[in-house]
Structure formats: structure tokens, C-alpha cells
TrEMBL record:
<feature type="compositionally biased region" description="Low complexity">
    <location>
        <begin position="171"/>
        <end position="180"/>
    </location>
</feature>
<dbReference type="InterPro" id="IPR036865">
    <property type="entry name" value="CRAL-TRIO_dom_sf"/>
</dbReference>
<dbReference type="InterPro" id="IPR036273">
    <property type="entry name" value="CRAL/TRIO_N_dom_sf"/>
</dbReference>
<feature type="compositionally biased region" description="Basic and acidic residues">
    <location>
        <begin position="221"/>
        <end position="232"/>
    </location>
</feature>
<protein>
    <recommendedName>
        <fullName>CRAL-TRIO domain-containing protein</fullName>
    </recommendedName>
</protein>
<dbReference type="InterPro" id="IPR011074">
    <property type="entry name" value="CRAL/TRIO_N_dom"/>
</dbReference>
<feature type="region of interest" description="Disordered">
    <location>
        <begin position="171"/>
        <end position="233"/>
    </location>
</feature>
<dbReference type="InterPro" id="IPR052432">
    <property type="entry name" value="PITP/CRAL-TRIO"/>
</dbReference>
<feature type="domain" description="CRAL-TRIO">
    <location>
        <begin position="324"/>
        <end position="483"/>
    </location>
</feature>
<feature type="transmembrane region" description="Helical">
    <location>
        <begin position="84"/>
        <end position="104"/>
    </location>
</feature>
<keyword id="KW-0472">Membrane</keyword>
<dbReference type="Pfam" id="PF03765">
    <property type="entry name" value="CRAL_TRIO_N"/>
</dbReference>
<keyword id="KW-0812">Transmembrane</keyword>
<dbReference type="Pfam" id="PF00650">
    <property type="entry name" value="CRAL_TRIO"/>
</dbReference>
<feature type="compositionally biased region" description="Basic residues">
    <location>
        <begin position="193"/>
        <end position="206"/>
    </location>
</feature>
<dbReference type="InterPro" id="IPR001251">
    <property type="entry name" value="CRAL-TRIO_dom"/>
</dbReference>
<keyword id="KW-1133">Transmembrane helix</keyword>
Length: 608
């Protein structure tokens, strides 16, 4: 059998077929199989490798593959990627950056789309973000129907948060409950008298305002065992309403906003749930609950890299020191980094698959690193851009780099908690071993995510998305820049200790939250189109103050990151994407470059 396979692989390929195969394998989308099964090569030699590595309860079914020629085999295998099983969720999660781009244009009239691929030299200093048109479904480019969905979702948010208007009335009266909360089995022509709505829509007395609505008051039609509820959001939503006060839910939702326009954040969840208001609310509340449980804001981002430097040096136990070292080693190695923008103005993250090896870091450390990566990259978006580009550099990848343990956690991060954050994924120079696990990866990925993934084999392919002078030299581009981690400096976060100023700024934000809510209530009530437009403009102005105010608050609630230290992320949220200043000041403290440990890479034939 092996002899027969070798003979077939040596068979000559007609020139026309060779050209066709090369075209098919050069750049293609993950929305379908890399190539038709009839064109796939024999992969008998890799079956043993797959048996040795697929040991986490995954389906071990092998696709039916047919042998073809050496030329087809070589080019097809280059268009595949085994690293995706670990790296894809990690890097996509890095731009799970929901709502980070805030667009302040109050116009709702769509204009002609600007094709940024035609722009020359899209460096930040020459890239006109203001000239970019807003994509559909974003603030400034909503259809009347989409704006009505946004309107309805805010009503529901105010109901679960017990937000009253300035006259002390409910956000929505019982008989004005929006359509998504009506029973999905009822029809407009029903002759049965409708019962009064209870629970979420009843008039609350003082005692009710201090307690979250009971589980029975949850949205109609929610089922904990809903087959479409992939991550159990329905159950989380119901438990959150049952166990949290409206005030705590409100505080958590506003904490999530940060520098974003609140509408832009909410719209991400609407788009992710195809404008189903009920499902968008469930996803939004579930995400809020996840952020609190994961301590995203009050631990991971608050303590940051400096905390781990101190723990690595002075940790109370060896376990603490090891955990800190695991986290920092991933930064020092440069497993992933953000640098530059693509032709559409999207921040670009590069993931070096060859630098990960299962077991080098603990599962907890990997998860913390993932969330930290996501939230940090959230800061690197410039309106109206609200998605990122991810490059998976598969150079030197081997089976030893595959790691399955954190995969489901990472997939949940970017699919369940950071919706609508991915622009394009480029899988660069993928090795051949991906063929045997393609079915598994495809089954794990959301079809929308899969459709955004493309394979590239050389810098020419990549230049369709990024100009060559903005592609790093290690990816065969013209930019001589090379990654080097700049270590945190002890004492670089003095404002974190100034709790008095922090509390003062948080109090000012609370006033803005109240103003935004009241303007939203006025928007609910106003029927006159001209007055309604005026209210929307005033509401957007409050959102602008929230954005500017966040950047004043930022150094009091977020530890400085690598991107603060090198000068990419600057005071006031100003971004310089192609700067990597190794001695840039960080909150007045000069950064220092420490020697990083030697990078350990794996050979292509390293499978153990």
C-alpha cells in the first residue's frame, strides 16, 4: 500500500491541472474545505501523529482522502494549519475587543463606502480614519428598523437595572413592553384577552427596587436546555436576575463601557444575535456576569504586568512565583504581539505558533494571559474601526506546538463574550498536518468566524491585506522592526495608589451615566422627529464626555501595559501604531528593557 502511494505521488501532473491546483490552494477561505476531497493528498504517514496527539476526547474520525501528485500535495499542505486548534481562539480572542471603537457621528444616513485597499501608504500619520465610511449596523449607519431594535434593547436594559426617568416613572409601562418580550406563540389576530404583564414590567415599590426580579420574571421563551444556546447564556441570565440587585447589574454594565460609546457596545450584541433583542439582552447580561466572575477589571487589568514582576521576584510561595513567571514568559517570548494596521485601518496582531508548547504554562496562566491580551488590544482601536486583523505565523510549526486544553475556554471568550470583534484572519505558511484535524476545527468554529479566515503562503498573498512596508521583516515584509519585550518597571503605576482622585473621577462618571440614561428616556418618549434628533445629538455629546473622561480615569484603574511603555498607546488614548520606543516614559517613569529569556523554538519534525 505504501509503495502504491509513493508511485502515485510521483505521477506527473498535467500543466493545466497544476496551475488550477496552485490557484485553488494559494489563498482560500476557511468557510469551506481547503480543497475538494478529491484533490487532497494521502496523509497515511500522519495518522500515527494524530493518534498520539488527539487525546482529549475529541472525535478521531479521519476524512476520506485520495492520493494525488506531489505538486498538489505540496501546495495543498502549505494551505493548512494545525496550529489553529490552539492559536486560532487565542489570537481571535485578542481582538475580542467589543465596542472599543466609538463613533460619534450622529448622522444615520449611509454614505458611499471608502475602499481603503486603494489608499496609498496607510501609515497612521497618513491614514484618514475620519474619511472612512461606517459599516452597516453601526452608529451613524443604522436603518430605521435597526434603530428601533436599539431603542427596544435599551428599554429592556433599563428594566432589569430598575432605571427610572427623571419624573420617577418606569422605563416602560406594562402595556408598552416591546415585541421581543411578547410570547412567541401569540399572534396579532388572537381573540384571547391578554393578561397584564408581571415581573419585569410590573410597577415596582421601594422593596422591589432593592431586589432583582425573580427567575419567573425572566424573558419569555428562555430555556436552559435550548440547543441553540451554545454557552448556556439563558441559565446565566436567569441566575443573574435572581441573585443580583438591579443596582449591581447597572454598575457592572457601565463598568463594561469604558471608552466606548454605549450604543456601539450594545450594537455589537445586537449584530451578534442577528438583531434579536431578547437574545442580545441575554448575551449582554451573561457577558457582564462573566467579566465579574473572571475579575477582568478589578484584578487582571488593575494589577497587570508590574504585579507579576513583583510576584515573580517576591512571591510569598513558589506557586505564586511560578504563576507569575508563566504569565510573563508568554510576554517575553512574544507568542503574540500587536503592531501596525492593515489596509482597512484595522490593528494587526501577529501570533507565532511555533513558540507555544503544551505544558510550558499552567492552564490558569494561559487563561489569564488570554483575557489580558483581549482587554489590552481593546485599547488599540480607532473609530470607526471596530475590528482587528490577526496573522498566524505558522513558520516552523510542528505537532509539538498543538495544545487542546485551553481551546474551549478561548473559543468561549471570543464567541460568547467579545462579539463582532474580528475583521480578518490570515493563516500564513500553514504546514500540511492540518488535514487530519480540519473537521474538528471546523466543527468548533462559528461559521461567521470561519468565513473570515484566509490562507497565505507568501508576502504577495499577504499584501492583499497589508501593504508590504507595514509587514515585519520576519514575515518577509519590508518593515525592519522586530519584537522585543520591554519589561515593566517597579513603581510605573503611581496613580493606582491615588484612590482619592480615582473615587472623584468615578463619581463624575456616575453623573454622566445618569445624564445618558435620562437622555435615553427622553429619546424613548419624544415623538417629534426634529426634537428627537436634537436629543440624540445631546446624548452623543454625553457619550463623548464618557469617552474623554475614561482616558483621564484610565491610569487610576488600569496598570500600564507593554503598549503603554513602547509608546503605541499614549495619554488620552492617542495611538501611534508603528512606534516601538524602548525607552518611552510610562506615567512619568522611564521604561527599562530587560533581557528576555532565550526563545525556544521547535523544529518541523518535533512531534513529542
Amino acid at each position: 500500500m505504501r509503495t502504491a502511494s509513493r508511485l502515485i505521488l510521483r505521477a506527473p501532473l498535467p500543466s493545466c491541472a497544476a496551475k488550477s491546483t496552485l490557484r485553488a490552494s494559494r489563498v482560500h477561505s476557511l468557510g469551506r474545505s481547503p480543497l475538494p476531497l478529491s484533490a487532497l493528498p494521502a496523509v497515511a504517514p500522519c495518522r500515527t501523529l494524530l493518534r498520539r496527539n488527539l487525546t482529549t476526547g475529541l472525535n478521531r474520525s479521519r476524512p476520506t482522502l485520495r492520493p494525488t501528485t506531489a505538486l498538489t500535495c505540496r501546495n495543498t499542505l502549505q494551505g493548512s494549519s494545525a496550529s489553529l486548534l490552539y492559536i486560532l481562539p487565542l489570537a481571535i480572542g485578542a481582538f475580542a475587543v467589543y465596542g472599543a471603537a466609538s463613533y460619534w457621528n450622529t448622522s444615520t444616513e449611509p454614505s458611499e463606502r471608502v475602499h481603503h485597499a486603494d489608499l496609498e501608504e496607510p501609515a497612521v500619520e497618513g491614514f484618514d480614519f475620519e474619511a472612512m465610511d461606517t459599516l452597516p449596523g453601526r452608529l451613524g449607519n443604522l436603518t430605521p428598523e435597526q434603530e428601533e431594535k436599539l431603542f427596544e434593547l435599551w428599554k429592556l436594559i433599563f428594566q432589569i437595572c430598575a432605571v427610572e426617568d427623571e419624573d420617577g416613572g418606569e422605563a416602560v409601562a406594562a402595556d408598552e413592553a416591546p415585541a421581543p418580550l411578547q410570547s412567541r406563540t401569540s399572534t396579532a389576530g388572537s381573540e384571547k384577552p391578554k393578561k397584564k404583564r408581571l415581573g419585569l414590567f410590573k410597577k415596582k415599590d421601594k422593596k422591589d427596587k432593592e431586589n432583582t426580579p425573580e427567575k419567573a420574571a425572566a424573558l419569555d421563551g428562555l430555556k436552559e436546555n435550548d440547543p441553540d444556546d451554545k454557552f448556556g447564556h439563558n441559565k446565566v441570565f436567569q441566575e443573574t436576575l435572581a441573585n443580583r440587585t438591579p443596582a449591581s447589574i447597572r454598575d457592572a454594565l457601565w463598568t463594561m463601557v469604558k471608552m466606548d460609546h454605549p450604543d456601539q457596545l450594545v450594537l455589537r450584541f445586537l449584530r451578534a444575535r442577528k438583531w434579536d433583542v431578547q437574545k442580545a439582552l441575554v448575551m449582554l447580561v451573561s457577558t457582564m456576569k462573566w467579566r465579574q466572575d473572571a475579575k477582568v477589571d478589578d484584578d487582571i487589568m488593575l494589577n497587570g504586568e508590574e504585579h507579576f514582576l513583583l510576584q515573580e521576584q517576591q512571591g510569598a510561595t513558589e506557586k505564586d512565583k511560578k504563576f507569575a513567571k508563566d504569565f510573563l514568559d508568554q510576554m517575553r517570548l512574544g507568542k503574540s504581539f500587536s503592531y501596525g494596521i492593515d489596509k482597512e485601518g484595522r490593528p494587526t496582531t501577529v501570533v507565532r505558533a511555533r513558540l507555544h508548547k503544551a505544558g510550558d504554562q499552567s492552564e490558569e496562566s494561559l487563561e489569564r494571559y488570554t483575557v489580558y491580551l483581549i482587554e489590552t488590544n481593546r485599547m488599540l482601536l480607532s473609530a470607526p474601526v471596530d475590528t482587528g486583523t490577526v496573522i498566524f505565523d505558522m513558520t516552523g510549526f510542528s505537532m509539538a506546538n498543538m495544545d487542546y486544553t485551553p481551546v474551549k475556554f478561548m473559543i468561549q471568550c471570543f464567541e460568547a463574550n467579545y462579539p463582532e470583534s474580528l475583521g480578518v484572519v490570515l493563516v500564513h505558511k500553514a504546514p500540511w498536518v492540518f488535514q487530519g484535524i480540519w473537521k474538528i476545527i471546523r466543527g468548533w468554529l462559528d461559521p461567521v468566524v470561519a468565513s473570515k479566515v484566509h490562507f497565505t503562503n507568501n508576502v504577495k498573498d499577504m499584501s492583499e491585506f497589508i501593504t508590504p512596508n507595514r509587514i515585519p521583516k520576519e514575515l518577509e515584509g519590508d518593515d525592519p522592526w522586530a519584537y522585543e519585550y520591554v519589561e515593566p518597571v517597579v513603581g510605573e503605576n503611581p496613580k493606582l495608589k491615588d484612590t482619592a482622585t480615582r473615587d472623584k473621577l468615578l463619581g463624575e462618571r456616575q453623573v454622566l451615566y445618569d445624564q445618558y440614561e435620562q437622555k435615553t428616556h427622553q429619546w424613548f418618549k419624544e415623538k417629534d422627529a426634529e426634537k428627537r434628533a436634537s436629543i440624540k445629538a445631546e446624548r452623543n455629546e454625553v457619550a463623548k464626555k464618557l469617552k474623554d473622561g475614561y482616558w483621564i480615569l484610565d491610569p487610576y484603574v488600569r496598570s500600564r501595559s507593554l503598549y503603554d511603555r513602547v509608546g503605541i498607546l499614549n495619554e488620552g488614548g492617542k495611538l501611534e501604531y508603528h512606534v516601538w520606543n524602548k525607552s518611552a516614559p510610562t506615567n512619568g517613569v522611564a521604561a527599562a528593557t530587560a533581557s528576555a529569556p532565550a526563545v525556544v523554538e521547535t523544529a518541523a519534525d518535533d512531534v513529542d
